Amino acid sequence: xxxxxxxxxxxxxGEIGVGGLEFAIEADADEQNLLATLLGVVTVNSLSGLxxxxxxxxxxxxxxxxxxxxxxQTCVATLEDFDSDFQCRIERHFADxxxxxxxxxxxxxxxxxxxxxxxxxxLSGPGFDVGHVIIEHLALILDPYPRRPEAEFVEHQxxxxxxxxxxxxxxxxxxxxx
Length: 178
What we know:
By secondary structure, the protein is α+β, with helices and mostly antiparallel strands. The chain has one domain (10-177).
């Protein structure tokens, strides 16, 4: 069996019933290897979660994912591998591209709140991919310079002062001047 090339959990808007849609997410070994490569980490030991999808506005969706992951990274201070546990909640809104909410956002003055809601994402087809949302979220929350919790930064200590190649000439000059 060939290795997987995508971590995909597609959701079609038309499949979302009145009561919504709920499904479990569990990355198998091939998907964990793929995720480790995509995220630039040593390994993804586990990734699981529960996705809730509700209809939102006309032709859109509201996604909530409760995600748990255990990821092995390399400490930038000690170069030792260590495991990190992540428990996070991902929440996104997807809107039909013709929805007035998207044109209102485009016409409004852009105000960015770092911890605020990003606003709805326009759908580029009949659905969206929860797997891709998870990859994007993990890529954003992973520390690009991970450190073990107990790792200490030790400043580089200079050795004895470096002797200049002209020091011998300076000593000769000093002797001559005396």
